[in-house]
Amino acid sequence: ILDVHIAPYYSQGWHQRGAIIVMHDITNIRRLEKMRSEFVANVSHELKTPITSVKGFAETLLSGDVPDKETSDQFLRIIYDESERLNRLITDLLELSKIEKQAMPLQITDVNVNEIINNSTQTISKFARDKNITLHLPEIDEAVHVEADKDRLGQIVLNLVANAVNYTADNGAIFINVEERTSKVVISVRDTGMGIPAESLDRLFERFYRVDQARSRHSGGTGLGLAIVKHLVESHGGNIFVKSKEGIGSTFTVELPKTQD
Ligand code: ADP
Question: Which residue range or ranges hold the Histidine kinase domain (predicted)?
């Protein structure tokens, strides 16, 4: 998109000799404006859905039309779950905005990657067990070190493993691997889950992008997890990649430089 200004050009008296044309390429500005308004629309929609549900069930309970305690408990459970979803959504949105504004400087220290993986997977292992999913941790004897923000790296691993559990059917498996190369550390999370269609791979790290809206909502997802992960990885000067085959599984690979500049 071009923003064009044309001004007549005079020289030696009043004869117009030509014109000066100034063109600004505003494609980027327009694109950013469009992304921002899409984001606001998305956030509004994401907030409205649980609020509508909370309001509707609370109204029904207040009207006194609920036949028995079992039904009213069921409605209260929905109200509770939807409030939890709102809470997660707002936490993730604030997190994302802090990372984007770089309002949260990284606390870089020397970090033992194996320890981070062990801690992060402990939180998830109960959910994996409930689905009879086997979690395979890295098979390495020596500690792998990287300069990183401990909490943020924990969050990266946690989000990826949580997704692997969420999008893998019962009795599946998840393999977490760490590899030390000359100048970088590579962490991968592979699952034997449902996989991701090829046409979705490019958009996966966008805010609120989901392959399957219903499934993501059902599993309590906010649609912001991977956007947060990508930002965190990049703020460490690293990269994230995904490979996936529908019906076979997905592998998310995070590469982090060993030392921070
Ligand atoms: P959500 O809260 O929906 O899980 P994410 O940003 O974490 O949001 O992920 C975005 C989408 O990417 C998910 O809705 C899901 O469709 C897809 N996805 C993420 N991880 C996996 C995975 N391991 N296997 C299959 N699909 C995945």
Answer: 42-260
